[in-house]
């Protein structure tokens, strides 16, 4: 798996102070993508044990709320990310894991590899960015077609449950 960057402190991609991994590789090519340079799966650096150790160190801080996965497209990097999230959850089960994807929830659960990553995450921000639906007033998403899904509540109820039903 390749990644373009890791951030120790990020307040834009989920609640609280979070650490983030921006993977590379995305076949969605959304118009006006905010990270078009991350679409190339060969871009960035290869993930190693060194990055895993650094990430766990950052997440161990009591002020850190959790991990957010972005890209590129995390659902096109399931081989690496599923193991990373499992390692995080094993070491720090109290830390939340958010994942952003241009794929919708319904698309993700149809693919066993994508669903395996989803199953170890707590929140999914789903759907492609749609420039015509861009709204800077939305919480933690770029366009109004995207949803912030509480995965635990969704798994429990069997119905998609949004973190903020009104989007704000």
UniProtKB/TrEMBL annotation:
Catalytic activity: glycyl-[protein] + reduced [flavodoxin] + S-adenosyl-L-methionine = glycin-2-yl radical-[protein] + semiquinone [flavodoxin] + 5'-deoxyadenosine + L-methionine + H(+)
Keyword Lipoprotein recorded: no
Highest taxon, organism lineage: Bacteria
The enzyme's E.C. designation: 1.97.1.-
Annotated keywords: 4Fe-4S, Iron, Iron-sulfur, Metal-binding, Oxidoreductase, S-adenosyl-L-methionine
Any matching Pfam family: Fer4_12
Class of this enzyme: oxidoreductase
The keyword Iron-sulfur is annotated on this UniProt entry: yes
Cofactor field: [4Fe-4S] cluster
NCBIfam families reported for this sequence: NrdG (TIGR02491)
Family: Belongs to the organic radical-activating enzymes family.
Purpose of the protein: Activation of anaerobic ribonucleoside-triphosphate reductase under anaerobic conditions by generation of an organic free radical, using S-adenosylmethionine and reduced flavodoxin as cosubstrates to produce 5'-deoxy-adenosine.
PANTHER family reported in the protein's UniProt record: ANAEROBIC RIBONUCLEOSIDE-TRIPHOSPHATE REDUCTASE-ACTIVATING PROTEIN, PYRUVATE FORMATE-LYASE-ACTIVATING ENZYME
Protein name listed in UniProt: Anaerobic ribonucleoside-triphosphate reductase-activating protein
């Amino acid at each position: 798996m390749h990644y373009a960057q890791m951030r120790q402190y990020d307040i834009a991609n989920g609640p609280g102070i979070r650490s983030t991994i921006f993977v590379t590789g995305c076949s969605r090519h959304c118009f006006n993508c905010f990270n078009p340079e991350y679409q190339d799966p060969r871009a960035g650096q290869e993930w190693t044990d060194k990055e895993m150790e650094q990430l766990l160190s950052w997440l161990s801080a009591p002020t850190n709320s959790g991990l957010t996965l972005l890209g590129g497209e995390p659902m096109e990097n399931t081989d690496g990310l599923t193991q990373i999230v499992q390692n995080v959850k094993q070491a720090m089960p109290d830390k939340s894991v958010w994942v952003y994807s241009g794929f919708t929830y319904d698309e993700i659960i149809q693919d066993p590899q994508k669903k395996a990553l989803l199953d170890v995450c707590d929140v999914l921000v789903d759907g492609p960015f749609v420039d015509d639906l861009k709204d800077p007033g939305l919480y933690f998403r770029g366009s109004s077609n995207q949803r912030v899904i509480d995965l635990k509540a969704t798994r429990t109820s069997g119905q998609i449950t949004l973190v903020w039903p009104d989007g704000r």
